[in-house]
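Query structure, 136 tokens:
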């Protein structure tokens, strides 16, 4: 994993998206981090020092992993640049395959049974209708 400054990270992220436009994926994770061990954080708390948390951003395409640390004062600028990159590369997304709409449930004319299910309890709240079904 390579730890880069925020601007080179964004450039490398752009090239990662461009390499994977036809086929492939890019995973980006964000995590709050202080880059200190737990014992160091506990010592800082005990002495009253404030812990500066940063945002650890990681990106991988399965072959190459890059990361950067973003401080709180650079967060707004980084987020705007990151959003621009995401918007520019959204065209490579596949459209979601939608399933056909389900046919309405048919009630047999002989009884009130609905394909093996019998409504046991019906609760009606203004816009919410809950039906508990029991399998026969």
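Result returned for the query:
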């Amino acid at each position: 994993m390579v730890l880069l400054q925020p601007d080179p990270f964004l450039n490398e992220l752009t090239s990662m998206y461009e390499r994977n436009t036809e086929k492939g994926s890019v995973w980006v994770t964000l995590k709050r981090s202080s880059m200190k061990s737990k014992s160091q954080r506990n010592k800082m708390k005990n002495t009253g020092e404030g812990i500066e948390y940063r945002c650890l951003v990681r990106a991988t395409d399965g072959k190459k992993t890059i990361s950067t640390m973003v401080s709180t004062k650079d967060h707004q600028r980084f987020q705007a640049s990151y959003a621009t990159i995401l918007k520019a590369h959204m065209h490579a997304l596949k459209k979601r395959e939608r399933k056909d709409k389900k046919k309405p449930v048919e009630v047999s004319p002989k009884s009130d049974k609905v394909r093996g299910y019998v409504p046991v309890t019906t609760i009606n709240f203004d816009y919410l209708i809950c039906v508990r079904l029991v399998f026969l």
